[in-house]
Design a protein that fits this description.
Elements lengths: L3 H8 L12 E5 L2 E4 L4 E4 L2 H4 L8 H11 L14 H13 L6 E5 L2 H16 L3 E5 L8 H4 L5 H4 L9 E4 L14 E6 L15 H12 L2 E5 L13 H4 L6 E4 L10 E5 L1 H4 L18 H16 L6 H11 L5 E6 L4 E5 L3 H12 L2 E2 L1 E2 L6 E4 L7 H24 L1
Parallel strand pairs: 3-13, 5-6, 5-7, 7-8, 8-9
Antiparallel strand pairs: 1-2, 2-3, 4-10, 9-10, 11-12, 12-15, 14-15
The structure holds pyridoxal-5'-phosphate.
Length: 401
């Protein structure tokens, strides 16, 4: 009889030849439990998804209630589903300046695709500007926004009309011009290793877009729903996008995403011709019910308002000779080590000793910390102790050679 691990390798497609292979038994609150009976403190949130921790009771109850009413009834956009209406009303009340129409999808990359199409259709323009070292998803349009050709080379040709600029370099903003449909960027670059905007960069992007009539699309798929200490990072950095993208933490562990725009822009997808963007499962009622419970819990319990204090607490505890710098925006943190060789040891040793952390796609000297926002002070202490011990180990390992 093959083991579950062997069956996994044989029949479940892998994304690398070295998968982590943590066999999950269950997950609750801040902890993940393996089939071997080991407990792991989650400092990663499944890459910024489980902001309320695992299986938050409000989310579980909302899903259960919806399961007893109805699941899928029709492709998106034809039937009225109460969960979709209720969540859209709640969400848009928290947003500014006409961001009042919510297009529901299932994954982050789909919201990027939808936004690109909407920007092209609304403006009648063709080009899209994106930032280097950004990750917006793995479908062909989102993949075409990637700047590093090591990843894209084997999938070319991508979607034409994409130009790249470097995040935080205002001298390159002139590449957003009268032919640009939109710029798509993250308010804080996530996979680059957590790069916050500097010198009012986002406001400068906004100004340039206004000057040339391009739309500003903010990808808040990773920064949204309290991660940076504000409900959305654009509120923190005081800028309002034309199209806002969300996903990941939105569903409290259920798959749902959206792009949000003013109604008059969004209507471009409904006319000349109609059905400009359609989806079967986008805004699935059980997932949107989960999103509603997530947003309600985040705001009622003001969970995200304690994020900046927790960020400061982690920064004060994480002091070690092999840390070069910590970049952060709330509980989205990149810890850069003095040498690249330390990284693998720190990550492996941390996981071995019972805390989950992760790498970044485009930064090979830093590890990612993105714990659920509900982490308490004792768990911060527990996590930092495991991390510091892993850094001691990595330093020892490397010095020995
Ligand atoms: C900023 C950002 N945008 C888009 C995506 C794509 O989201 P998904 O994996 O749900 O398609 C990700 C995923 O990591 C992301 O971090």
């Amino acid at each position: 009889m093959p083991s579950i691990r062997e069956l996994y390798i044989s029949h479940v497609a892998q994304t690398s030849e070295i998968p982590l292979m943590l066999e999950i038994e269950r997950a609750e609150g801040m902890y993940i439990y393996s089939a071997e009976g080991k407990r792991y403190l989650d400092l990663n949130s499944g890459i910024s998804v489980s902001s309320l921790g695992h299986r938050h009771p409000n989310v579980i109850n909302a899903v259960k209630n919806q399961l007893d009413k109805y699941l899928h009834t029709m492709v998106y956009g034809e039937h009225i589903h109460t969960p979709q209406v209720a969540f859209a009303e709640l969400l848009t009340q928290t947003l500014d300046n006409g961001l009042d129409s919510v297009y529901y999808l299932s994954s982050g990359t789909e919201s990027v695709e939808g936004a690109m199409k909407l920007a092209r259709k609304h403006t009648g323009r063709y080009n899209v500007v994106a930032c280097s070292s950004a990750y917006h998803g793995s479908t062909m349009g989102s993949e075409s926004l990637r700047s590093d050709d090591e990843f894209t080379r084997s999938f070319l040709p991508g979607v034409p009309g994409v130009r790249h600029i470097d995040f935080n370099d205002e001298s390159q903003l002139s590449k957003i011009d009268e032919d640009t449909a939109c710029i798509i960027l993250e308010p804080v670059q996530a996979e680059g290793g957590v790069i916050p905007p500097e010198d009012n960069y986002l406001q400068k992007v906004r100004k340039r877009c206004d000057e040339v009539g391009a739309l500003m699309v903010l990808d808040e798929i990773q920064t949204g729903f309290g991660r940076t200490g504000y409900l959305f990072a654009h509120k923190k950095y005081d800028v309002v996008p034309d199209i806002l993208l969300m996903g990941k933490a939105m569903g409290g562990g259920m798959p749902v995403s959206a792009f949000v725009a003013p109604k008059e822009i969004m209507m471009a997808l409904a006319k000349k011709p109609m059905l400009g963007h359609i989806t079967t499962f986008g805004g699935h009622p059980a997932c949107v019910a989960a999103a509603h419970a997530t947003l309600q819990t985040l705001t009622d319990e003001e969970i995200y308002k304690d994020v900046l204090r927790k960020e400061a607490l982690i920064r004060s505890k994480l002091k070690h000779p092999i840390i070069k710098e910590i970049r952060s925006s709330g509980l989205m943190m990149g810890v850069e080590l003095t040498r690249r060789k330390y990284l693998k040891h720190v990550v492996n040793h941390t996981i071995k000793n019972g805390a989950v952390i992760d790498y970044f796609l485009f930064n090979n000297k830093s590890f990612r910390l993105a714990p659920p926002l509900i982490i308490n002070d004792e768990q911060i202490e527990e996590g930092c102790n495991i991390l510091l011990a892993a850094m001691d180990y990595a330093r020892f390992k490397y010095t020995k050679r």
